[in-house]
């Protein structure tokens, strides 16, 4: 766990603000002068008490939407994929758009938990747990869509290589199969990463809860964690290794997703530029979702001194930065189309700008490139309402980006006789809405039952965790 | 038997067992600062104690040296399994797609390769196999990092006498608990506890099996 740099500046003028811009003063990450016990109390309170009214207010509609999602999946299975709007030529309608959308959101969680860990960005500790939870639940939603899109979902296990009576093996040259490996590795490794980090905090809940059932459940889930230093030693090593493994993994996942497009011959898809463009887009959309969840959570859960304004501001900056990369990518894509001199490539981009899907393209420019520019202004990065406006714009904008990429190229390929319009059906729309229900249900259950904040990690970024005085200098040699 | 600490040690089946009178397991001493526990641990190590451990709510720096913890072999296990995953991916993709007929005679039908002859592309096209090989490398390494770590830590542990002490309840909260095991050759119920008190322990506790 990242805790290498003591020396936080604790002489703030206002003990609840740490958004100063003076680079010579290291901003503290936990405010309000809290000790270890205060952090435990705050972080464990949500899991140990009966949920608040707002929780039910969000949870009940979420469950309703999740129910709708599964009902529609049942309807789909019973009827066939014809209930969706996707048909030739646009065979990848909403299911693939939603898949790319959800799997992209997951990337911010892994970026926070793995990449920022390797870069020793200690501010990640307050938000990594729930960003990772967001990753898991987003990937769950992402995994469902291609699974139900395969036509005969009861045979989806054919995607995996196993010796079978048909004596067939999957086509390992296909990007779609790469996706199976990338997404299944990503989902399971993210789950392990999330759970491993959570074990010590579940042990904290085990030792605090008064409820007998909760005590047994947390006891089983924490594996008998004692906080032993010998255990911590291996734990930290495993955590570091996982972070180092997740970093190339997360970059590979959206690269592989982009190969689904880039390896195909379709105009508007067939470019080597897609992997970095998609990865930046994924992190962009993911950070927007992190903010969408973090801003209300820090107010509703009372985490204002743990998830401080500085954390939120940092997320805003990352969002702005990746947003600029994405904006650059849109521009470069247009330039490449023109510069390639390729007839079909040029046509598809002109079609995106002014064809029947023009609203989608211009909406994404507005939502992804223009509105988030307000994040340049510090006041806007500190105001929850403007942050939510920008984050919501990006959430929607990133969905429209995938819509434009998927639909325009497929609907207008090389042969005009095969062109057709794509129109989603009511099932498409409600299924997409339903997937948000599933996501929110899972997330709210996580907020209620599991340690929302990485309790142990947050303690390591308090000044008390580093000790003062010089009597243990001999013991810290080599650090 | 669970990992949970019974609130009253005397009600545990072990304590009431006639032929197993409460055999001491360890002496626990609680500290409320990082410096305090580091100092005491170093002193205990210097006094010759070896079978001891410090239970803390978060990893503290310098404790490994104070306890004499040697670097874990975990990274090597992970490396080995990562290479295994890579080899498996390479063999799987190359074998199943790279041959028209199996080079191994008498292989069962279910294990026959399945060549895809598509637009004259070479059967063995390594570049196209790399994503799968890469993902398998990561998958094997990451699973190993987690499972080997828990295995080396002997977790999940179904019963741990340490939890018979109420001091452990705060070892996941705000206290730092130094535990010296009865199995240590220098251990003595009274003198070890006195030693820890002397080193600034807020309180000590003797836990039994």
Question: Any overview of this molecule?
Answer:
- The complex is a heterodimer of chains A (479) and B (209).
- By secondary structure, chain A is mainly α.
- Chain A has one domain: Formate dehydrogenase/DMSO reductase fold (Up-down Bundle).
- In chain A, 66% of the residues lie in helices and 0% in strands.
- Chain A contains 15 helices and no strands.
- Chain A is globular.
- Residues 1-5 and 468-479 of chain A have low confidence and may be disordered.
- A 4-stranded antiparallel sheet of chain B has the order 2-3-1-4.
- Chain B has 2 domains: 24-71 and 161-208, no CATH class; 74-152, no CATH class.
- By secondary structure, chain B is an alpha+beta fold.
- Chains A and B meet through helix 1, helix 5, helix 6, helix 7 and helix 15 of A and helix 2, strand 2, helix 3, helix 4 and helix 5 of B.
Beta-strand segment tally of chain A: 0
Overall tally of domains of chain A: 1
Total strands of chain B: the figure is: 4
N-to-C span of chain A? 14 Å
**CATH topology assignment of chain A:** Formate dehydrogenase/DMSO reductase fold
Gross morphology of chain B is elongated
Cα gyration radius of chain B (Å): 27 Å
How do the strands line up in the largest sheet of chain B? 2-3-1-4
Helical fraction of chain B equals 40-55%
Sequence stretches where pLDDT stays below 50 over 5 or more residues of chain B: 1-18
Distance between termini of chain B? 13 Å
